[in-house]
Amino acid sequence: MSKQINHWCIVCGKGYHACNSCDDVKSFTPWKTLTDTSNHYSIRLIIDDYTNGIINKKKAKNMLNKCDLTGYKDFLPHVSKIISDILAYDDCKNKKLRIKKDNL
Question: How far apart are the first and last CA of the chain?
Answer without folding.
Answer: 70
